[in-house]
Amino acid sequence: MLFSIVVHAAPVQNQGADTALRFARAVLAAGHGIYRVFFYRDGIHNGSALSSLPPDEANIPAQWQALAAEHGLDLVVCIAAAVRRGMLNAEEAQRYDRSSSNLAPGFELSGLGQLVDACLQSDRVITFGGRS
Amino acid sequence: MLFSIVVHAAPVQNQGADTALRFARAVLAAGHGIYRVFFYRDGIHNGSALSSLPPDEANIPAQWQALAAEHGLDLVVCIAAAVRRGMLNAEEAQRYDRSSSNLAPGFELSGLGQLVDACLQSDRVITFGGRS
Amino acid sequence: MSGKSFLIISRSAPYGSSAARDALDVALTCAVFEQPVTLLFMDDGVLQLLAGQDPQPIGQKNLNAVQQSLPLYDIERLCVCRASLDARGLETQQLLLPVEAVAAEAIAQLIAEHDVVLSI
Amino acid sequence: MSGKSFLIISRSAPYGSSAARDALDVALTCAVFEQPVTLLFMDDGVLQLLAGQDPQPIGQKNLNAVQQSLPLYDIERLCVCRASLDARGLETQQLLLPVEAVAAEAIAQLIAEHDVVLSI
Amino acid sequence: MTLHTLNQGPANRSGLESCQRALQAGDTLLLIEDGVYWSLPGLPCGLELPPQVQLCALEADLQARGIASLAQPVDDAGFVDLCLCHERIVSWF
Amino acid sequence: MTLHTLNQGPANRSGLESCQRALQAGDTLLLIEDGVYWSLPGLPCGLELPPQVQLCALEADLQARGIASLAQPVDDAGFVDLCLCHERIVSWF
């Protein structure tokens, strides 16, 4: 079966980001596919290239990157949610005239249409929320 | 009277960041002082240099910067909360070997001791929370 | 691309968080992709539909304006949880748009009628 | 620098959000600055003190370990809202540390006894 | 005397209940953000305050949400004044 | 048939109540994260489920929080299985 995973929870502050990651691993371990992981609302912070944790704490963005590299996951960050919250790739940094970008490699900025497309293409869609 | 303001709410997702900013302006307009604004938990995103909003939407980090420039505010972002969430100044970017930084000018990274110090030095302390 | 029906459940008050607006953005995107979409307002989400909002003093955009555009996008099925209205002392007549008040027993049915359910 | 007494109100369950840990970090910082600090656990915050936690499978650090270090930092006054315990069917004996169960009427008094109140 | 702020709406009943437990005579409860919905005129099982507790609501938040309120409206300057005339502030969120 | 997940603890009663309203025979409720506290054995006014609704709780979250649970424990692989054998998933948070 083909899954898509929607993540509203930001790492560190909410457990939902970690639960989503564990769920994604379990889906792949069971031999199913993941069409897309879509990060929305504060969930866009899962795409940070700058998250810096002590060695004994989980670096969620790095874990998404590692999982994506191993399994070829499509990690899409909602562009409208991201730029408002200060999460930019090189192209958006240039468009908004900012001196640097902070979206980690392996993540892609795109529109909400990618969420709707994920729902249409997948057999199951599950959302991991934060609060508010 | 001397105030300190604690902000737990991230801009965009929670109104608390905007309420805190309006409160800060009202404190200054009434002729009182602000000893410090301390950003904790997801509130650290108030310090983003990369927040990019359409012209008709409020850019909260830019508004903090403008207020600080006008009134000499001490804007302190909790360093432990910030680095975990991917908010770095140049020094921390170097320490964690990241290629860029994203803390806006006018904001400073420092420890939780600055929150306790703010409570000790101020006549009133008020917290603007998000949820969770 | 096969079509699917979408149910979007919105349970947050407007303005205190961006959730209300984010739910509307998803609904409008579904409509742009020409997928049938139903909105279900529950809990504090029913407060989104109160008329007479004016968020200019808090620096936000008026959600009432977006809500009024929903029919233009063929988003015509707006459901509100009857129990949530009752708990807030509200009547459907106080709301900005015509809505379908849904009894508690009918909510499970509404969910079962849709292919995809998105909570925001 | 004049001293002040701090009351930290913690109302969130552990692990679902970082709030519990963040509240402990603030309490410990107050103690390092040699300021008297009281912790008040309300609502789901009382669940932080359940013994036998083991968050290794969810990749988080055990809060019980931090809690057990509180007396070493001279943070000895731990208050829990009695009504919040009752609503969860819990007794103080089920908690990791000795606590003072505070009746609803006494919470206002507890607040009035402290110079600074921080909610986390 | 303590100033309490509450920013959570009716769905978060435990936020209100905890705040209510903490109120005593001489305190003020200021409703802010989604908290202003607690002052909706028709709200069943709504706000019950101890005697001699003043109820206020932030004007900008009332206007934003389009609600007529039973609470005393207060503007941002009034919010600051409330902080001055109470000894401490407790935020419920 | 629908799989419901709930990640909010007892302080968020409206989260539970909304979820309860949405359950029907054949559905499964999976408690995750702070939601597992709804399966605390001593909880007064706790979970009441319609007939033929199965109650499960994520094992990792039970273990993390140190609670004995009345719900059927489910590991991450079981979570995926539950998604397969229900037509859709509704998340309550």
General description of the model:
The complex is a heterohexamer, with two copies of chain A (132 residues), two copies of chain C (120 residues) and two copies of chain E (93 residues). Chain A has helices at 16-29, 60-71, 79-84, 90-95, 113-121, and strands at 2-7, 33-39, 75-78, 107-110, 124-128. With 132 residues, chain A is α/β, with parallel strands linked by helices. Chain A starts with a strand and ends with a strand. In chain A, helix 1 runs parallel beside helix 2. Chain C has a five-stranded parallel sheet with strand order 4-3-2-1-5. Chain C is globular and about 45 Å long. In chain C, strand 3, helix 3 and strand 4 form a beta-alpha-beta unit. Chain C has helices at residues 19-32, 63-69, 82-87, 104-112; strands at residues 6-10, 37-41, 77-81, 100-102, 116-119. Chain C has a single domain (6-53, 61-119), classed as Hypothetical Protein Ychn, Chain: A. By secondary structure, chain E is an alpha/beta fold. Chain E has a single domain (2-92), classed as Hypothetical Protein Ychn, Chain: A (3-Layer(aba) Sandwich). In chain E, 27% of the residues lie in helices and 24% in strands. Chain E has helices at 13-21, 59-65, 76-84; strands at residues 2-6, 28-31, 54-58, 72-74, 88-92. Chain E has a five-stranded parallel sheet with strand order 4-3-2-1-5. In chain E, strand 3 (54-58), helix 2 (59-65) and strand 4 (72-74) form a beta-alpha-beta unit. Chain C binds chain E through residues 11-17, 43-44, 47, 50-58, 60, 64, 86-90, and chain E through 7-11, 33-34, 37, 40-45, 59-61, 63-67.
Oligomer: heterohexamer
Mean pLDDT of chain E: 96
CATH class of chain E: Alpha Beta
Fourth-tier CATH superfamily name of chain C: DsrEFH-like
The CATH topology of chain C is given as: Hypothetical Protein Ychn, Chain: A
Structural category of chain E is alpha/beta
- At CATH's second level, what is the architecture of chain E? 3-Layer(aba) Sandwich
Order of helices and strands of chain C: EHEHEHEHE
The CATH topology label of chain E is Hypothetical Protein Ychn, Chain: A
Beta-strand residue fraction of chain E: 15-25%
Structural class of chain C: alpha/beta
CATH architecture descriptor of chain C? 3-Layer(aba) Sandwich
How many domains is the backbone of chain E divided into?
Answer: 1
Number of helices of chain E: 3
- Largest sheet: number of strands, sense, barrel closure of chain E: 5 strands, parallel
Count of folded domains of chain C: 1
Strand order of the largest sheet of chain E: 4-3-2-1-5
Globally, the shape of chain C reads: globular
